[in-house]
Amino acid sequence: MKGLLMSNEITKDLEYYLNLDWTLIEGTDLDFNGNPYHYIEIKEIPSFVFCAKTKEKALENYKKQLRLSLMLMLEDGEHIIEPGEETEDDIDWESICP
C-alpha cells in the first residue's frame, strides 16, 4: 500500500531529529559591551548558534531554538545532516587529489 512504511523504516520527523545525539560546540565570548556570554553551536547544522548569559542557561534552552530550526528545515525540504554522516567538510581532499 502506498504511504505505509515498512516495519524496518524510520520516520524522520521532527521528534526523530530532536532526539539525535548532536555534536555540540560550546564556548564563551564577549558581546559588544565586553560582557561574557556562552554559546552553543551544532556541528551538523552550520547555521545554528544559541547564546545565553550562562552555560547553564544555554544548555537548558538551546533545544527550543533547535526545534524551530529543524521545523523550518523540514518545511523547506532541506537535507538535514545527521551526526556521523560524512560531508564534504570531512573529506581529506589532499589524500585523494594529487
- Global morphology: globular
Which segments are poorly predicted (pLDDT under 50) over 5 or more consecutive residues?
none
Q: Strand percentage, roughly?
A: 15-25%
How many runs of DSSP E, i.e. beta strands? 3
Order of helices and strands: HEEEHH
- In which range does the helix fraction lie? 25-40%
The biggest beta sheet is recorded as:
3 strands, antiparallel
Tell me the number of helical segments per DSSP (H or I, 4 or more residues long): 3
Using only CA atoms, what is the Rg? 17 Å
Mean model confidence by pLDDT: 88
Distance between the termini: 50 Å
Q: What structural class is derived from the secondary structure elements?
A: alpha+beta
Strand order of the largest sheet: 1-2-3
Short description:
The protein has 98 residues and is of the alpha+beta class.
Can you describe what's shown?
The protein is 31% helix and 22% strand. The chain contains three helices and three strands; from the N terminus they run αβββαα. The chain has helices spanning 14-18, 55-75, 93-96; strands at residues 24-30, 36-42, 45-52. It has a three-stranded antiparallel sheet with strand order 1-2-3, with helices on one face. The N and C termini lie far apart (50 Å). The mean pLDDT is 88.
Spell out the blueprint of helices and strands:
Elements lengths: L13 H5 L5 E7 L5 E7 L2 E8 L2 H21 L17 H4 L2
Antiparallel strand pairs: 1-2, 2-3
Sum up the structure in keywords.
globular, 98 residues, 3 strands, 3 helices, single chain, three-stranded antiparallel sheet, 31% helix
